[in-house]
């Protein structure tokens, strides 16, 4: 456990003496899009997770989780924040690499969230060739139109829609939300995920047709349980999902810590630190996975955060 004890509050819980936890680094390292800073210090964030509005406040070494109960924390949010994992051990292993040591120290409070696979899949389909403000706005619009309303402190928020709710959306409706060409991918993916979850219930009642069994293979619970490479291939079958999006879904929602998503900032970090070939992203990914093994995903987050916050540049950009 990366915290000493839990204190029950009237409006939430407090985790005392938490290690390796900083809200800004967790919520702004490219893994999530529904957390918003509430102050200039960036130690207080508000997020919409699992149908709840949650506030996270860091006060010295204590973390306040407001808007949830002890039961909510034990059943979901402890795993969501990956608080049962010893990040000191992970950072100790990664610091043995003298090149990575600087990035690990800089992102000392990063933790990899365990998010909902469906929301993560749709969010990262939307992220392809897109800017973070536009990704956030797209997710907000999807949630506003198809999600359930949540009341919190006199304000109304919207949960991310269920597969069933989003499966009712047409491509035209999604395009009207400003999602562009990604609307077609999101519409088809939502329908596949919902049909697969529906057929999981049907299989107990009747024999499925070969076509239905094919659709059943799109069930995200089934995909999550596959070994990493099989999981990757299964995710790549969804419309609009390439290797980078699949790696993101595996790392940020399925617990596949050997995944190594390569985006523009990770590419810069890999060239900057390791001198990898900037035009070969598959080779860059393979190099990192071979070098860091099951810790590749953690290394990716430290590298991403360092590269973006430091705004590092690589030789091809300096010409």
UniProtKB/TrEMBL annotation:
Protein name as annotated: DNA-(apurinic or apyrimidinic site) lyase
EC number annotated for this UniProt entry: 4.2.99.18
Keywords from the UniProt entry: DNA damage, DNA repair, Glycosidase, Hydrolase, Lyase, Multifunctional enzyme
GO terms of molecular function: class I DNA-(apurinic or apyrimidinic site) endonuclease activity; damaged DNA binding; oxidized purine nucleobase lesion DNA N-glycosylase activity
Coiled-coil boundaries: none
Pfam families: HhH-GPD, OGG_N
GO biological process per UniProt: base-excision repair; nucleotide-excision repair
Cited SUPFAM superfamilies: DNA-glycosylase, TATA-box binding protein-like
Lineage of producing organism: Bacteria, Bacillati, Bacillota, Clostridia, Eubacteriales
Domain HhH-GPD: residue ranges: 126-308
Keyword Protease assigned: no
